[in-house]
């Protein structure tokens, strides 16, 4: 199982590449959609890491993917801006996925 990053900036992508995680940069909602479609078609990718700003490009798309697809798992990662509360995002994801409120 591989990880893949969809980021809004090259700094985060470069850092992840240093850790061995490939990815790409998306600045628009259509770019995000194309990236998700392409990555979802790759059976080797099990987890897609998204920065908060990328998730905000098309929240409905991200939400639909989380609820309708079993694979890959979408997970938020902090980026260089430090925006977003990752623990809150994980709690919300668990609540939506299995109905357990943390």
Automatic annotation (TrEMBL):
Keywords: Ion transport, Transport. Pfam families: ATP-synt_F. GO terms for molecular function: proton-transporting ATPase activity, rotational mechanism. It comes from the Bacteria. The keyword Transport applies. Belongs to the V-ATPase F subunit family. This is V-type ATP synthase subunit F. It comes from Candidatus Anaerotruncus excrementipullorum.
